[in-house]
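Researcher: Can you fold this with FE2/S2 (inorganic) cluster in place?
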Amino acid sequence: MSETVLQNVYLPKTVILDRVVDEIDEVKTFFWRFEDKQEQEAFRKFMPGQFAQVTIFGAGEFPASLPPSPTESEVFFTIRKVGSVTAAMHALKPGDRFAVRGPYGNGFPMEDFYGQNLIFVAGGIGLIPLRSCIVYALHNRERFQKVQVFYGARTPKDLMYVDLLKEWEKSAGFECHLTVDRKDSTWKGNVGVVGSLFQKSGVELPVENTTVFVCGPPVMFRFVLKDLKSMGFQDRQMVSTLERYMKCGVGKCGHCCIGVAYVCVDGPVFNLEQIKKLGEEI
Ligand SMILES: Cc1cc2nc3c(=O)[nH]c(=O)nc-3n(C[C@H](O)[C@H](O)[C@H](O)COP(=O)(O)OP(=O)(O)OC[C@H]3O[C@@H](n4cnc5c(N)ncnc54)[C@H](O)[C@@H]3O)c2cc1C
Ligand code: FES
């Protein structure tokens, strides 16, 4: 007689917090590992742009992007404290346990972009979901043509992943342009919205054979899309991630639905053509 093993998709696996890094005000990066090594290996097959459901015991569960690239050895989340569950996560100390289920969602199909130019445009904590693809592109540099990063934050203190940004600025064949809305005495770079970087002398955005990744607050998103459209980019060339309230993360509860699409399964990555078809306001 065959034995039927029922898998509970809602059951998170316990992980151990290894270390915590302060990024910017109210934002921290949490490096963690599964208690079970096999779970760790299975999980590390995630794709850039996927997310996981994070459980903080006694507080609740929430969705979080996976900012590491699958080409990196460590796994981590970068989390902004906005409410009760993210505050409980911020209170965790190395050695504490929490739980994770996933990876979920479609992710960015990076292999489909081999041979193309990649342009990454991020505002504020919009760099969290794009970090994975950018590091992936850097680790697979020969597979892509031109790679450009345009990143803006409100002030120099709001720029995330600063060590990585310095590395990107120095990497051969990899352009990294930064800007802030308001400078301080330390800032020698560009001042202005992220779209102002497209006009900088020496900056050329290739329109043909290019995919543009855009993530950031809605107002930045709208202005950047307008700039890109005026340069000739088509809707299907521009990809982003949609954020929706999620509960199950696996296409069962319907919390994340936009029209016929389940953002947790069909997304969170969509191109602009798909986003418009869903009737999403941009
Ligand atoms: C696919 C996906 C990936 C995400 N990745 C990250 C990430 O990498 N890092 C990160 O810090 N956050 C991320 N978020 C947002 C994160 O899930 C919410 O901030 C979290 O659920 C808030 O939980 P809370 O209990 O602390 O706050 P709550 O008390 O639930 O909410 C506090 C405030 O945050 C707002 N809020 C809560 N959830 C969302 C949401 N899903 N979208 C927009 N606003 C919300 C509420 O309206 C409220 O104003 C992601 C969300 C999704 C859907
Ligand atoms: S979160 Fe339940 S269906 Fe998407």
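Model: Folded with FE2/S2 (inorganic) cluster in place. The two ends are 55 Å apart (CA to CA).
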